[in-house]
Amino acid sequence: MLCRPSHPGNIGAAARAMKTMGLSQLCLVDPKKFPHADAEAMASGAADVLGQARVCASLEEALVGCVLAIGTSTRRRDLQTALLTPAEAAAQALAEAQAGSVAFVFGNESFGLSKEELARCQALMTIPANPAYSSLNLGAAVQIVAYELRRLALAETFAQPELDAADLAEVERFYAHLEETLIRIGFLNPASPKRLMPKLRRLFSRTRLQKEEINILRGILAQVLHQTGR
Question: Do 10 and 61 fall into the same domain?
């Protein structure tokens, strides 16, 4: 998935990078210019990947039906979470893909992924580029990830998936329910939320919640709201 890509040529380059590695499901989130002649020119022989690309208005819409989203980011201190290498991310993606759809999420060329977009990802990946010059073209970044996916898929060295993992829409409904409950019991001040919800998201993302676990947690939250008169 390419979030808010500003240069149509990069969309075409990403499509070409995907096709060379046998990938075809390209999703564009709020692209600045698409369709566009520059995208078609850079796609070269991957016009089919470009032509069937799915365009969504938001990342939330794009992730419907996915069980795992892996966000890409440069190494930043404020992320406070482990960053996978491309090989590690590919291994996790291939394992989870046996249970449902998996997405690699790439940010805007200039600004990357926003904090809100990163919060919707269950894992984060970084490409260990030269720290003195870590600016990597979007198409090149997609090519690196696509290569690792193909390399590991051909070697069949990935693990078995988590059992019955909850899809991301179910997880987002849980987060909304959790936030509502915390506000109701006075633990979270909506006027001054600070970073409580992002920290809770990181905590639960590390567990890879299953459907049954989501149901248990939401049952607890529903009972809390019931006891408080909501």
Answer: yes
> What's the rounded mean pLDDT across residues 73-96?
81
pLDDT, tens digit, 9 for 90 and up, residues 39-61: 999 999 999 999 999 999 999 99
User: Is residue 122 domain-shared with residue 172, that is, in the same domain?
Assistant: no
Same domain, 11 and 98: yes
Nearest to 69 by CA among 48, 46, 92: 92
Task: Using alpha carbons, select from 62, 58, 11, 13 the residue that is nearest to residue 33.
Answer: 11
Q: How many distinct structural domains can be found in the chain?
A: 2
Angle at 59 between CA 14 and CA 45, to 5 degrees: 20
Residues 81, 129 share a domain: yes
Average pLDDT over residues 205-212: 84
- 88-98 per-position pLDDT tens digit: 999 999 988 98
The predicted structure's pLDDT at residue 145 = 97
The first and second tokens of residue 11, run together, are 């969309």
Q: Would you say residue 87 has pLDDT above 60?
A: yes
- Please report whether residue 11 resides in a domain: yes
> What is the structure's pLDDT at 159?
65
**Is the domain of 149 the same as that of 176?**
no
Backbone angles phi, psi at 197, to 5 degrees: -65, -40
